[in-house]
């Protein structure tokens, strides 16, 4: 949600609009990607925090938060505000009369108690990042028939991939994985499967000559987690599995460095068990890197021919096998790389920001 918000702000700034990001994060710059950053002082939670703690804090400080939001809107003469989420984006307490346009963005379909409160504020529009997210809301019992699909944008636009460089990456580049350590990201099962005897045999079978692709993982802890301490527990498991399978495990990357890291991979595996959009997949594709992922959520619609999709029921072994097979097939690999880059062009920041303005602001 944070990266998508920054990308949208960058797109709005590129179109000549003034964008303001309001955040309660403990460390934030004064400006980012052309947007002004304003610190919200009335919301103070431990960092990282979980949903229950944040919800209780917002409920207690609701009057102070809404008053401060109103002051900021008036100070900057805000015409339209997008609440990035019902809970983490403060949609559950949006001020009722200011500004003129109030929009709820449901990047994920959160807890019923938060979504119900946000919808009760009668926002002028509700946005979801994909058709799969809107379908999930309907399955959950929400009337999402009028909700509009607003895809997430890229934050940066990488240059077109070099065909010769991409060919070299296929044969000698690493296979990379980037995620946060959360159960729904599927990172623990993926790394556990790396030591599976059949996965190791497949890796030897599909290697290119004497070369065997290295595997590199970057895990970034977030400011939110399901249960306090759960990210540390996941990191402990991941470290053990990486040690057992000779996988390089590194820290998370900055937003500026992540696209370049993904673009320098032979393949990127996205092992997510559910996904309403898929920014890591999109950033990989923008650099011409094919993506291996489960056929779940929005990933099939996003990735298309820009990689390989496997059934969720097939498990992580199928992800590894698909990676080895695609890397060993130069014709199929080149086609996937080219498709990935051109599919990602539809998600340029200014293009997505213009789409937003046409849909819900103008």
TrEMBL record:
According to the lineage, what is the superkingdom?
Answer: Bacteria
Q: What one GO molecular function would you report for this record?
A: glycosyltransferase activity
Assigned keywords, A-Z: Glycosyltransferase, Transferase
Supply the EC number(s): 2.4.-.-
Q: Where are the residues of the annotated region Disordered?
A: 141-166
Q: What is the name of the protein in this document?
A: Glycosyltransferase
Annotated organism of origin: Actinoplanes oblitus
């Amino acid at each position: 949600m944070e990266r998508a918000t920054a990308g949208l702000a960058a797109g709005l700034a590129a179109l000549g609009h003034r964008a303001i990001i309001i955040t309660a994060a403990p460390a934030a710059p004064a400006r980012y990607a052309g947007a002004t950053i304003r610190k919200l002082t009335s919301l103070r939670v431990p960092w990282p925090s979980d949903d229950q703690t944040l919800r209780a804090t917002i409920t207690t400080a609701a009057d102070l938060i809404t008053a401060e939001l109103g002051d900021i809107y008036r100070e900057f003469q805000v015409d339209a505000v997008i609440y990035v989420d019902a809970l983490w984006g403060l949609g559950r307490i949006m001020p009722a009369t200011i500004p003129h346009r109030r929009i709820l963005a449901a990047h994920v379909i959160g807890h019923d108690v938060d979504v119900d409160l946000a919808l009760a504020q009668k926002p002028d529009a509700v946005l979801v990042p994909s058709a799969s997210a809107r379908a999930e809301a309907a399955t959950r019992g929400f009337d999402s028939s009028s909700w509009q699909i607003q895809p997430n944008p890229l934050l940066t636009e990488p240059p077109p991939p070099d065909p010769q460089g991409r060919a070299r990456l296929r044969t000698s580049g690493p296979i990379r994985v980037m995620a946060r350590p959360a159960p729904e990201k599927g990172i623990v099962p993926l790394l556990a499967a790396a030591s599976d005897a059949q996965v190791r045999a497949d890796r030897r079978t599909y290697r290119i000559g004497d070369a065997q692709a290295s595997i590199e993982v970057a895990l970034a802890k977030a400011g939110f987690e399901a249960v306090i301490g759960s990210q540390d527990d996941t990191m402990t498991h991941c470290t053990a599995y990486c040690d057992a399978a000779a996988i390089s495990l590194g820290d998370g990357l900055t937003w500026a460095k992540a696209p370049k890291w993904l673009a320098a991979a032979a393949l990127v595996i996205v092992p997510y068990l559910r996904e309403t959009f898929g920014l890591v997949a999109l950033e990989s594709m923008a650099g011409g890197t094919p993506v291996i992922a489960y056929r779940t959520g929005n990933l099939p619609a996003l990735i298309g021919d820009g990689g390989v999709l496997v059934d969720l029921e097939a498990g992580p072994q199928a992800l590894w096998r698909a990676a080895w097979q695609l890397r060993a097939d130069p014709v199929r690999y080149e086609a996937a790389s080219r498709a990935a880059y051109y599919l990602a062009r539809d998600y340029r920041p200014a293009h997505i920001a213009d789409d937003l303005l046409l849909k819900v602001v103008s």
